[in-house]
Write a structure and sequence with these properties.
heterodimer, A: alpha/beta, four-stranded antiparallel sheet, disordered N terminus, B: MetI-like fold
Chain lengths: ~280, ~270
């Protein structure tokens, strides 16, 4: 499957830390509404990026465009130099809702879905499924159905299902947004562990500032929509696994909170709300 | 009331309560059936034997016709027509519905016909069916098929359109092509709607079988009812009606039990 050229390209990227994903002047709009515009972002191979922003700013829309589900109406999205033209097994997606799981299939069959679609032989599929179920700690529930699992476990299944396809990039759309606080914390730790053992490029959309700082190499903040852009970008150089208590963590949190707070106020004001705060 | 101090006690006492509840449910069903029979008896007495048959007379007619074999033949003939036509309706309607729900061109092409014919009752086609397909089984089976297929198609389309977008997107990004998405995601996700559609279509089939057997059928429950008119046998008409109801009930129960057993993992709840 992998040609020599691919290997060379992969090596080249790894050496230079070159762009895994290139987003150039991207705008996405539909029905006369421009959700985001002029987005420029380079994401390195193996980088963990969190996209933060006020609700409704179009961060999920941007992610869905990256996944190939929506075509941008301006600019270009590239994965390793090739234009993203549609859904692609190289671009795995973890959705917020566990509705994305296939309820009539067991956990094992859900995780085996990608390999099955690619036509891998049964024995190889079995190996892959065992490996990734082990990675997310779900081997004991392999023969259960998603409806028999808790919310946190269902999201683990989604993560295992995506990783079983060995994608270059994993796109995560508020994957822990529907979980309770305790479970979310556990899942964040798990994801951090999985990502460290299993480096791949991750684009993670969230509105949770702490979550972004816990997980990301770089946090990108989007402005309020319509025509949302990238407002600012923060590199997070804290050692992993990260603790929320440290001074550096708190400092970053304050900057992000101020940044996003400003955008939230802007968006509320745009909707006609009468709120206090420095005008933009 | 004062005895319920211990919080756990009432919960324990609830268990035998559920058994009693079930018994009470069965008693209520029995009661309403008995009231129905009594009402029927009253109506039969009021109108007299020329216009209505009492439960006892209907039972006697049933025993007579069962002895002669006519009742068994009628049940077998009608059931066979219904199962054939209905089965065909489900087997054709479900895939057509899935294609219409997923492929815009197919939808555009077939929608006008579905939206036109579903308003025309099968009884309107009885004469044409006999002229075109003969007086044999074909015309009856086709009428039952006709009454089943649109309702299955329309419900299947609704099922396809109700599939969560994230499922379809997940399948696409996991590498499923159009065809794989159709049979590995769309079909299984639509199963509960198809089962509901099949049950509705079964109801329609029973509504249609009597008109399908109006003309040129020598056996079948519909034929029994129509021929009874010629002989002035009100008790046979009553028998036909009761058998039709009982048979429909049985068929629906069978679908529910089978679907509940075999299709449980597709989210079919019965």
């Amino acid at each position: 499957m992998v040609s020599n050229l691919d290997v060379v390209k992969k090596d080249g990227r790894a050496r230079t830390g070159g762009p895994g994903i290139t987003i150039r002047d991207v705008g996405i709009g539909f029905d006369g509404y421009q959700a985001v515009s002029d987005i420029n972002l380079d994401i390195d191979d193996g980088e963990f990026i969190c996209v933060l922003g006020p609700s409704g700013c179009g961060k999920s829309t941007l992610l869905m465009a990256l996944a190939g589900f929506i075509a941008p109406n301006q600019g270009s999205l590239r994965l390793g130099g090739a234009e993203v033209t549609g859904p692609d097994p190289e671009l795995g997606v973890v959705f917020q809702s566990s509705e994305a799981l296939f309820d009539w299939l067991t956990v094992r069959q859900n995780v085996a879905f990608g390999p099955r679609m690619r036509g891998l032989p049964r024995a190889r599929r079995q190996e892959i499924v065992d490996e990734y179920l082990g990675l997310v700690g779900l081997r004991h529930t392999a023969d259960k159905y998603p409806s028999q699992l808790s919310g946190g476990m269902r999201q683990r299944v989604q993560i295992a299902r995506v990783l079983a396809n060995q994608p270059k990039v994993v796109l995560m759309d508020e994957p822990f947004g529907a979980l309770d606080a305790q479970t979310r914390e556990v899942m964040q730790g798990e994801l951090d562990r999985i990502w460290r053992t299993h480096r791949c490029t991750v684009v993670f959309v969230t509105h949770d500032i702490d979550e972004a700082i816990l997980l990301a190499d770089r946090v990108v903040v989007m402005s309020a929509g319509p025509a949302a852009r990238i407002k600012s970008s923060y590199r997070v150089d804290l050692p992993r696994p990260r603790q929320e208590g440290s001074a550096a963590f708190a400092e970053l949190r304050n900057s992000l909170r101020a940044d996003i707070g400003e955008e939230v106020r802007k968006s509320l004001r745009a909707q006609g709300a009468d709120i206090e705060g420095a005008p933009a | 009331m004062t005895a319920l101090v211990d919080g756990a006690a009432p919960r324990v006492r609830l268990r035998p309560g559920t058994g009693a509840k079930r018994l009470r449910g069965a008693a209520l069903t029995l009661l309403t059936v008995l009231i129905g029979l009594a009402g029927w008896e009253l109506v039969a007495w009021w109108y007299g034997p020329a216009l209505a048959a009492s439960p006892a007379e209907t039972l006697r007619a049933g025993i007579d016709l069962a002895r002669s074999g006519a009742l068994g033949d009628a049940i077998v003939a009608s059931t066979r027509r219904i199962l054939l036509g209905w089965g065909l309706g489900v087997v054709v309607g479900a895939p057509v519905g899935i294609l219409m729900g997923r492929v815009n061109v197919v939808r555009r092409l077939l929608d006008p016909y579905i939206e036109f014919f579903r308003f025309i009752p099968p009884v309107a086609f009885v004469t044409l069916a006999i002229v075109w397909f003969g007086i044999g089984e074909a015309s009856k089976v086709i009428l039952i098929f006709y009454t089943s297929v649109f309702i299955v198609t329309i419900n299947t389309i609704a099922g396809v359109l109700a599939i969560d977008e994230s499922k379809l997107r997940a399948a696409a990004s996991l590498g499923a092509n159009r065809w794989q998405t159709l049979h590995a995601i769309v079909l299984p996700a639509t199963v509960p709607h198809i089962v509901t559609a099949a049950r509705l279509a079964m109801g329609n089939s029973f509504l249609t079988i009597v008109s399908a057997e109006i003309v040129a059928a020598d056996t079948g429950i519909g034929a029994l009812i129509w021929q009874s008119r010629n002989y002035g046998r009100v008790d046979w008409i009553f028998l036909g009606i009761i058998v039709l109801g009982a048979l429909g009930f049985t068929c629906d129960r069978l679908i529910r039990i089978l679907a509940g057993r075999l299709l449980r993992r597709y989210g079919v709840k019965m």
